[in-house]
Design goal:
The complex is a heterotrimer of chains A (about 375), B (about 180) and C (about 375).
Chain A lengths: L1 H20 L6 H29 L15 H11 L10 H17 L18 H9 L2 H11 L3 H32 L4 H7 L22 H17 L11 H4 L9 H25 L23 H19 L7 H30 L2
Helix pairs in contact in A: 2-3, 2-11, 3-11, 4-6, 4-11, 6-7, 7-9, 7-13, 9-11, 9-13, 11-12
Chain B lengths: L12 H28 L23 E3 L14 H5 L5 E11 L5 E13 L8 H5 L5 E3 L14 E2 L12 H8 L9
Chain C lengths: L11 E6 L11 E7 L2 E8 L7 H8 L1 H4 L11 H16 L5 H30 L2 H22 L8 E2 L2 E2 L7 H24 L2 H7 L7 H6 L4 H6 L6 H4 L20 H25 L18 E9 L2 E9 L5 E7 L1 H6 L2 H5 L4 H11 L3 H5 L1
Antiparallel strand pairs in C: 1-2, 2-3, 4-5, 6-7, 7-8
Helix pairs in contact in C: 3-4, 4-5, 4-11, 4-14, 5-6, 6-11, 11-14
The structure holds iron/sulfur cluster (2 copies).
Chain lengths: ~375, ~180, ~375
Amino acid sequence: MEERGWLESLVNGLVQPLYDAVPWIVHLVPLLWILVLVAVSVLILIWAERKVSADIQSRVGPLHHGPIGVFQSVWDALKLLTKEDTIPRQADRLVFCIAPFIAFVPAVLVYVVIPFGKGWIAADLNVGLWYLLSVGSLGVVGVIVAGWASNNKWSLLGGMRAAAQLITYEIPMFLSVVVVIMMAGTLSMDDIVRNQAGGRWSLAPPETPFAGWYCFTIPGLIASVLYLVAALAEVNRQPFDLPEAESELVSGFNTEYSGMRFAIFFLAEFSNTALVAGIAATIFFGGWSSPIVSEGEGIWQIFGDGIVWYFVKITALIYGMMWVKWTLPRVRIDQMLQVAWKGLIPLALINVAIAVAHVAWVGP
Amino acid sequence: MGHVPRTQVSSNPIIAFFQYVWSSLITAAKGLRVTGYNAWLRERVTVAYPKQELDLSLRTRAKHRVLVDDTGDPICIACGQCQRICPDHCILVTRKKVTVTTPEGEEKQVNRPDEFVIDLARCMYCNLCAEVCPVDCLHLTRDFKYSSGDVHTMRIELEGLLRPEPLSEYEANQTDGADDEGGEE
Amino acid sequence: MQGHAEPVHHEEMLINMGPQHPSTHGVLRLLLRLRGEVIESARFVIGYLHRCHEQLTEQNGWIRAMPLPDRLDYLSPITSEWAMALAAERLAQVEVPERAEWLRVLSSELYRIASHLVFVGTFAMDVGATTMFLYTFRERELLLDIFEKLSGQRMTCHYIRVGGVGWDLPSGLDAEIRRVLKTVESRLPEYDDVFTNNRVARARIEGVGTMSAERCRAFGASGPVARASGVDFDLRRDAPYGVYDKLDFDVVTGERGDCLDRLTCRTMEIRESIKLCRQALDGLPEGDIRTKLPARFKTPEGVAYGAVEGGRGECGYFAIGDGGEAPYRLKIRSGCFSNLHLIEKALAGWKLADVVAILGSIDIVLGDVDR
Ligand code: SF4
Ligand code: SF4
C-alpha cells in the first residue's frame, strides 16, 4: 500500500503536470507502442527467419543465446551498434546518412492505421488504406537514394532495380486492394475489418465466423493471391529479391552500409515484411476477427475476436512468405517486369471487373 | 538421353499465358512440398560442434604420433626417411647414438632421435612420412585439437608427439589384433 | 584494364565483378561492360590463385608431389590424382593391381557424384535458390564421410598413388557406400522438384547461355559443358583407362547447350556414376592394392600423357621424363581452364543476372584454372 501510494504520487506528480503543460503528449503513447512493437517484432522476425530457413535447410539455426536462440538477434543488433560506422570517401555523405531513415520512417508510420484488435488502432483515419499505401510507398525513395549515394556500381544497380521493381509492383498491389475497397465501401481500416463479419455470399460455409472474410469471395480470393505475390516483390523477398540479389549484386543497394545504418535498413525491410502481412491479414483475412467464435462465452472467450488472432494471422502469412523465400529461385530483371506487366496487372484488372460484377450482383 | 523434359507452351498466347500461370503455381507448390517436408519431417544434419562431436574415422589424418617401446623410448631409429620424403619440409630429425639393454641383457648401440620436430603449421597431413617409416613408428592420429593463435606453438617437439591418445588406425589394429576391424571404432 | 582499350561510352558502365564477389566461384575477375543491365562485352582475368603446381612437381618428384593434385580441382580431387598417377605409370610402365584399378573407379565415381552435387547446389544458389545449396551439400557430406573412412581425409584425400591406391576398403564401408548411393539417388527427384522443374528456375536457365558444339570444340571444351552442347566425347568411353572398358554406362549428352542442358547433364551423370559405383562394388576383385615401388621411384626418359575424365572435363598430365625422380617437364591440362574461355562469347548480350547463371553453369574451380 505504501509503495502504491508512492508510485501514484510519482505518476501524479510527473505525468499530470506534463499532461497539463503539453496535452498532445497522449498522442505519443500509441507512437511509442508502435515503435516498441516494430523493434520487438523485427528482432523476433529476424530470429524466425533464421530458424525457418534452418528448418527448411535441415540445419539447426541459432542455438546459444536464450532458449533455442531467441536472443540471437538482440546480440546481433548490439554487435551492429558497436561496429565501425564507415562512409565511403566518395559517397554523398548527407544523402548516404539519411537514406536508411527515409526508408525506415514510412515503414513505421504506416502502423498508425493498422487495427491490431478491437479498438487497438492508433488513428482510425477515414482514408486509412489510402494513407497506408501512399505512405508505405515512400520507402522506395530511401532505397533509391541509398543506391545512388553509395557511389558504388553494385549499389547503383541495386537502387535502379529497386526503383523499377517497387514502383511496378505497386500497381497490382493497388489494384487488388481496390477490390477490397469496392466490396467494403470504405477506406477506414477498422471498418474494413468490421465489414468482414459475414452476411454476404461466400465460398466458405455460411454461418461460420469466417464466412465474411474477403478472401472467401471470388474476387477477394484472386486479389489476395495477387496481393501476396506483389507483396513479396514490395518487400524484396525471393523470388523478387533483385535489389539486393546477393549472388549478383553482392548486396545491392546496401552494399556499402554497415553498422547502425545497415541495421536501420534491415529494420525497415523486416518491418515492411510484417506490414504487408498485416495489411493482407486485415483486408483479406478478417483482421482481428476470430475464425472460431466471434463473441465467446466462458473459456471460449480466449478464442474470441482480438489482438491474438491478428498476430496469429500475421505469423501464418509471414511463415508462408519465408517458406516461399527459401524455396524459390530469383527471377531476372526483365522477367520480374514481365511478371508484373504481363501477368499480375492484367489479372488484377480482370479481377477488378469480376469485383464490379460481384458487388453489383451480391452487394457490398 | 532421358533428359528432364523441356517446357512446352502453346503457340496461342492466351493459352500460353494461363499455362505459365498454372505451371508457376504447380511447380512452386511442388517445391514447397519438398522444403516443407524437410522443415517438418526430416531430421537435422548439423552438429553443434563444440558441444557435440562426431566420431572421426580411424584413418583421419591429423596430429602425428611417435610410438614408444615398453621402456617409454621412441622406437624411431632416426633414419631420416620421413624428413626426406616430406613434401613440405616440416620434419626435422637428428640422430644420436644411445646404448640400450636388450631383453637378453646385452648392451647395444642404437640410433635414436636427438631432436625430432614436426612443424604442424606447414604439414598437409599427406601421410607420406608415416608410410615411409621403416619401423612403423610415425603415425597420424585423430587428435586434431591443437590449433593455436601462435604459429610457433605448432612446432611440436618429440615430447609433444608421444601422447598416447587417441589411437591411430595402425595401433588400433595392433591392439585389437583384428585387421578387418578398421574404419569404424 | 586489359582488353578494354576502347573508351567507355556515356551510357555504358564498366564494372568489375570479382575477384571478391560472392558468385565468381573463387577469385575470378570479370570485367563487364554494361549498358543498363545488358552485357555489351566481357573479359575475364585469371591467375590470382596460381601456385606453381607444375614447377612444384618438377622439383618435388612424383611421389612427393602426389598429394598436390588434390589442391587443383579441390571439388573432384580423386580425378586429378588419377591423372597424375596415370602419367607416371605410363611413363615408368608400372603395373597397377586389378583391385586398385577397381578402387580407383569406385573412388573417382564417388567423388564425381560429390563434385556434381556441388555444381547443382552452387548453380542453384547463383540463380537464387539458396536452399538447394544446402540440400546438395547435405548429401555431399555423406560422400565425404565415406572418403574420411576410406582415405582419412575428406577433400585432400591423397588416395590414389603411383602404382595403386593408398588404402584398401575398410570392412563395412561397402554397405555404407550402397546406403549412401541409395540416399543420393532418392534425393535427386527432390532436386528436380525444388529447382530444375521450377517455373522460375526454368525461366532463368532454359535457353540461356547457349553454346554450340562447334564453339565447344574450337575452344577445347570438354566434360559436361561440352557434352551438354552435343559433343559426344567422354574419355571414360573413348580412351578407356582403369577398368572403364569393363563397365556399362551411358555418356550423357545434351541437345541445345543451354544452362538447363548443362544442369541436367550433370544430374544425369550423377545417376550414371551411381550405376558405375554399384558395378565397381559388385565387381571388386580380391588382391593387392598397390605395386611396391622402388624406394627412389624414377621415371625413364620419354613422354607420357595421362588423361582422365574429371568432374569438369578432361584432366590431363603431360610429362617428359629424364630418368630422374621428377618429371623433367610437366604440363597440366585442366578442363576448367579450357571451359572458362567459352564465357566471353557466351556472356555478351545477356543480362547481369545471367552472368552468374552462365558462369555457374560452366562450373569452374579456380584452383584448377590457375593451378
Ligand atoms: S604428413 Fe606429409 S606434410 Fe605432414 S609431416 Fe608427414 S610427410 Fe610432411
Ligand atoms: S622414418 Fe620413422 S624411423 Fe625414420 S626418422 Fe622418421 S620416424 Fe624415425
